[in-house]
Amino acid sequence: MPAVRNRQADISLPEPPVARARRPVVLGTLALRPDPTAEQMAINSCLDSGSPLVIVNSVQLPPYPTTMMVGGLGAMVLPHEDDREAVAECADRIASLGIEVETVGLFTPRPVRALLDFAGRRSPGLLIFGPLLSKVGRLKMRRASRRIRRDATCLVWVAPDG
Fold it and tell me: How far is residue 38's CA from residue 158's CA, in Å, rounded to a whole number?
């Protein structure tokens, strides 16, 4: 009579998955307040994934070298020119929902390239590009969204009409 073999002892339990760091969601805008649909998309994405949100306000610096030498970056762009208050209000609204929010201002001659470089360094799970279309202009929005879709290394969502 053959011996009965206990195969339960041969089976090893799989190891639990290693907890990975949550990749942030980046909400990018061009010196303007975010589009309401982009803001809502960022909120939903962060709540679903439990990820932090990074709001990036990428501002184009005007070519004023003398102002830069005398006053520094603070003198190059005034607070009303890059809609800082509206971006801060957006960050406060989102933070009140319990989402971890970080606000970053990029001052550069090439704002779309700077946004892509920032996203490349942070390696987000989702890049939401959503400046307010009524203020940025349709042509500039299409050109910027085309470049972001082409060059981004992560999942990209562009606000409607982009």
Answer: 8
Helix (H, G, I), strand (E, B) or coil at 47: helix
Q: Tens of pLDDT along 109-138?
A: 899 999 999 999 999 999 999 988 888 888
Sequence-ordered strand ranges (E) for the chain: 25-29, 53-60, 101-108, 126-129, 155-158
Which amino acid is located at 49 in the chain? S
Residue 55: beta bridge partners? 27, 103
Give 7-37 pLDDT, tens digit per residue. Answer: 666 666 666 665 566 899 999 999 888 999 9
Q: Read off the pTM.
A: 0.80
CATH of the structural domain 21-158, one choice from 3.40.50.2000, 3.40.47.10, 3.30.470.30, 3.40.50.620: 3.40.50.620
Domain boundaries, the chain: 21-158
Going 157 to 113 to 103 to 100, the CA torsion angle's sign is positive
Tokens of 121: 């360094």
The H helix count followed by the E strand count for the chain is 7, 5
Q: How far apart are CA 34 and CA 115, in angstroms?
A: 14
